[in-house]
Design goal:
The strands form 4 sheets. Strands 4-3-5-12-6 form a 5-stranded mixed β-sheet. It has a 3-stranded antiparallel β-sheet with strand order 10-7-11. It has a two-stranded antiparallel ribbon with strand order 1-2. It is built from 10 helices and 12 strands. It is an alpha/beta fold.
Length: 294
Amino acid sequence: MELRQLRYFIAVAEESHFGRAANRLLIASPSLSQQIKALETRLGVRLFDRSSRGATLTTDGERLLPHARATVAASEQLLDEAQRLSAGRHTTLRLGFLAYALTAPSRSLLVRFGERYPHVSVDLRQYEWDDPSAGLLDGTSDVALVRTPFSGESRLRTVEIAREPVLAVMAEGHELATAESIPAVRLAQETFLEAAHVTDPVFAAYWYLWGQRPDDRPVARSRSTTVEEWLGEIAMGRGVNIVPAGLAAEYQKPGLVFVPVDDLPPSRLVVAWNPAVVTPVALDFARLAARPPG
């Protein structure tokens, strides 16, 4: 019997579904099913009743679940104590992020990680719009909080931690400011306030509606270096843009109006890492992100 099998048992019991448990554990569903069957064979009992709707604990499974939890908890306490005793034990996680990505769900994840891994120093670094991977593609980050899509995303692995609608942001005196919602095709006719260093066409196609706007689209170049300055320019009427709802909640300011955009796909806030160079502590961060809070 292996500790990972007990962790798998607990995850399936909590999710009542093999597919959801596999997503949480970052493994394939067939592999999870095989490991649970191996555990059942080793214990000599059937742990779950399986059906098309999910997995339900058997009576034996219900009786064994508290013991599995206690065993896993004891093993984690042993590891934590060993880490404290290990002389000079100190680990650093290089965590990149974009300004759009540091919102309530990601801050909650950072708090949970700090509580669960107090021995890990998190080296936070904000990346600019010229690198929407936040350091993953050039190897300067171990793991990152980013918004998809962007070029090179297919080289990375991701765990989604939030999916949010996107909102148009504009000055309160703008002619569209009183609309209940705006079609993307209508918003594409407006002057967008763009940062010159957004060069990734996939990223810009989403956030600036490149491809939906005419070739002679009106563009205003932002002179800002921070989100606050950029929103200040928008409040002055220099142009419009699109932001995720999570960011809008952070920056409700006088002079700005946020209006839902009808037909754009929601923004995905994800934890991302490069599987070719992933570190153990980066995987710890990703696994925690895949687990529901609580």
